[in-house]
Amino acid sequence: MLIDFIQYQFRQFEEMAARIQAAPEKYITFDSVSDFYKAEWLNDFQRGTTWAATGLDDGAEQFYAIVEYRTHFLKISCTDKIEICYGVHGQ
Question: Cα angle at 8 between 4 and 11, to 5 degrees?
Answer without folding.
Answer: 145
